[in-house]
Design a protein that fits this description.
- The structure is a single chain.
- This protein is of the alpha/beta class.
- The chain is 52% helix and 13% strand.
- The chain has an 8-stranded parallel beta barrel with strand order 1-2-3-4-5-6-7-8, surrounded by 8 helices.
- α5 runs parallel beside α6 and α8 runs parallel beside α9.
- The longest helix is centred in the N-terminal third of the chain and has 20 residues.
- 43% of the residues are buried.
């Protein structure tokens, strides 16, 4: 299976150079990434919101290696917040942040990430939008949830992401299913060891449904992050059976994937949010998208071989 290999490759500098230099890479990247500059991402936001969709924006960058990079990530999000407010888009577009981009993996990283992300959440609140903390590999979960708890003390609308393939996630769902909590549930996109995560797709799916039931039955605001038609249908059924109104949960899907399904859900009256990444540091995100979808991977590899 090439998927796990690609997940490992997503953190390889040598493979990064090869993939970045391949002529076939750019068209594939453009499918999943809204652009490298802020202006390009805002254009994508305007296009999506004009069609009734909502957006969460991710300025790409993770695994930063020094404090200066972490500050640049903070400043990029502050510029994004200002642009959303200026363009009148803050009501339809929120932001997703990876704490590794704010220095979480550096010495003293927990406190550093909290210090760097706090002004972003502060600015987002002032602009009338929200921030969701993306979840990364299992080694970061405790720190990320602790940062979430700190932020929610002042900014209760701050959201979090939970990954169903981790054994611990059902307990985390129970802890975060309370009133006012915003939780995006995804299956998970990092290579994790069998000691902490389900390895079989069917088990990941079953865990997703169990977690979804917890969140839907709770008092928070579930955000269903899935392109899987079965999970979408199960979420709709749960919402109906539990009496949730259409504005009491939302679906989320990635930019460039299942656009027709996104618009179908909007036409049915559902809130549908598109995860829109942008920026120059696209490699890790791009490789995870290839690993998730065999059709994308096959197309890319055939194109790469053909070019060579």
């Amino acid at each position: 299976m090439l998927g796990p290999v690609l997940l490992a490759a997503s953190r390889s500098a040598a493979i990064r150079r090869i993939v970045s230099a391949a002529p076939v890479t750019r068209p594939m990247v453009d499918r999943f990434i809204a652009g490298e500059r802020l202006a390009e991402s805002l254009g994508a936001v305007r296009s999506l919101t004009a069609r009734g969709l909502e957006v969460t924006l991710d300025h790409l960058g993770e695994d930063v290696t020094d404090r200066a990079e972490a500050l640049r990530s903070r400043d990029a999000y502050l510029a994004l917040t200002e642009a959303l407010a200026t363009e009148g888009l803050a009501g339809r577009a929120e932001m997703s942040v990876k704490l590794s981009a704010f220095g979480q993996a550096l010495p003293g990283g927990h406190d550093l990430a909290l210090a760097n992300v706090t002004p972003v959440v502060e600015a987002a609140t002032a602009a009338g939008t929200t921030v969701t903390l993306d979840m990364e590999d299992h080694t970061t979960v405790d720190s990320t949830l602790a940062v979430l708890a700190e932020l929610r003390g002042r900014f209760p609308q701050t959201g979090a992401v939970l990954q169903s393939y981790l054994f611990r996630t059902e307990d985390d769902c129970r802890a975060l299913a309370g009133e006012g909590s915003r939780v995006r549930l995804v299956k998970g996109a990092y290579k994790e060891p069998a000691s902490v995560a389900h390895q079989d797709k069917r088990e990941v799916d079953r865990a997703y449904v169990r977690c979804l039931k917890i969140l839907m039955a709770g008092e928070g605001y579930p955000m269903i992050g899935s392109h899987d038609p079965r999970m979408v249908a199960i979420a709709q059924d749960l919402a109906h059976r539990l009496g949730r109104k259409l504005d009491e949960y939302e679906f989320q899907m990635l930019y460039g994937i299942r656009a027709a399904e996104q618009e179908r859900l909007v036409a049915e009256g559902h809130r549908m949010r598109v995860y829109v990444p942008y920026g120059t540091d696209w490699y890790g995100y791009f490789m995870r998208r290839l690993a998730e979808r065999p059709a994308n991977l096959t197309f890319f590899l055939r194109s790469l071989v053909g070019r060579r």
